[in-house]
UniProtKB/TrEMBL annotation:
InterPro entries with a match to the protein in the record: Bet_v_I/MLP, Plant_def-hormone_signal, START-like_dom_sf
Domain of life of the native organism: Eukaryota
Stated name of the protein: Bet v I/Major latex protein domain-containing protein
GO biological process, one term: defense response
Signal peptide stretch: none
GO MF terms, alphabetically ordered: abscisic acid binding; protein phosphatase inhibitor activity; signaling receptor activity
Sequence similarity: Belongs to the BetVI family.
SUPFAM superfamilies reported in the protein's UniProt record: Bet v1-like
Annotated Bet v I/Major latex protein domain residues: 1-154
Subcellular location: Nucleus
Amino acid sequence: MKGSICHEFETGLPAADVWGVYGTLLFGKLMPQLLPEVVSKVELLEGDGGAGSVLLITFPPGTPGSETFKEKFIKVDNENYIKETIVTEGGVLDHGFQKYMVRIQIIGKEEKTSIIRSTMEYEVNDEHADTPPVFSTDGLATIAKAITKYIKEQKGSVEAPK
């Protein structure tokens, strides 16, 4: 069984500012700081942040499921602000998924604002097709809000995320 789900979050920030975090290794460095209840550690195992880079993500102690997972950047498009990552080991792959890819696209809009479009594409093992693993875009939404708030704080224009 294959499928995808998508979440969009309007940032109130220029696309280049948002991509300055999402499109770089700063994103991984910020996760344990901004959302320690979601991610406790992100380590760069291979690469420089471009396509082919591999990260090891560690969840906080007590998180149900796998303790870690590896993800590989399969696309980093700095012109169109698109990053695609695929889980290569652990995480959701230990819980019925054959494939799990996340695409982040930062879409610039008029008036110096942008949208973070987060899409999860997945494939579930046949044995789980009748009762697919439960997941949602809640985590991606939480990350989008936290990153947007961080960028606004860095720019000195803090306002509550929508």
